[in-house]
Design brief:
eight-stranded antiparallel beta barrel
C-alpha cells in the first residue's frame, strides 16, 4: 500500500514539475514577444505633444522665429516670423497640416495642408531638431540654431 502511495505521489510530482516547466517556457516566450514589440522610440516613450520654439538662421534677415505645435492626432500648426527684415512683404507665415512618423518612430515629416511645404524633424526629449532637405541632421557651426525647444506641453 505504501509503495502504491509513494508511486502515485512521484507520478503527481512529475506531472506538476513538467507543467511548471511548460508554464515557465510560455511566460518567457510571452515576455520576449512583449520586449520585441515595445521597443522604445520617440513616438511611444516621449511626451512629444506641445509647442516648440526657436530661431533658425536666415539668409537675408536676422533669423526666423519658428513656433510649431504638435498635436496627438498627428496634426500641426506653425508660425514663422522673419526677424529684422525691412522688405515690404509679409514677414509672418502660418501653416497647418499633418505629420507622419518614420518607421523607427524617431523622426516626423510635416506636410502642409496644400502639400507645398515639407519639413522633417528628429523628435528628442523636449526638443525638435530640424533636418535639411535630404532629411539629414544639419552639422557645422550653425547646427545648434536648428533645435527648437519645447515651451509648452499639451
Amino acid at each position: 500500500m505504501k509503495t502504491k502511495i509513494l508511486a502515485l505521489t512521484v507520478t503527481l510530482l512529475s506531472l506538476l514539475s513538467c507543467n511548471n516547466k511548460e508554464t515557465a517556457r510560455q511566460d518567457t516566450t510571452i515576455k520576449e514577444a512583449e520586449v520585441h514589440h515595445s521597443e522604445d522610440n520617440s513616438k511611444n516613450s516621449l511626451d512629444w505633444t506641445g509647442t516648440y520654439k526657436g530661431i533658425i538662421p536666415c539668409a537675408d534677415c536676422e533669423g526666423i522665429e519658428v513656433e510649431i505645435t504638435l498635436n496627438d492626432d498627428n496634426t500641426f500648426s506653425s508660425q514663422s516670423t522673419y526677424i529684422g527684415t525691412k522688405k515690404a512683404q509679409k514677414n509672418v507665415f502660418t501653416e497647418t497640416g499633418t505629420f507622419e512618423w518614420d518607421e523607427k518612430g524617431n523622426t516626423i515629416k510635416t506636410v502642409t495642408s496644400d502639400k507645398s511645404n515639407k519639413k522633417s524633424y528628429i523628435v528628442g526629449e523636449k526638443k525638435l531638431i530640424q533636418l535639411d532637405s535630404d532629411n539629414k541632421e544639419i552639422t557645422g557651426p550653425l547646427a545648434e540654431n536648428y533645435i527648437l525647444k519645447q515651451i509648452e506641453k499639451k
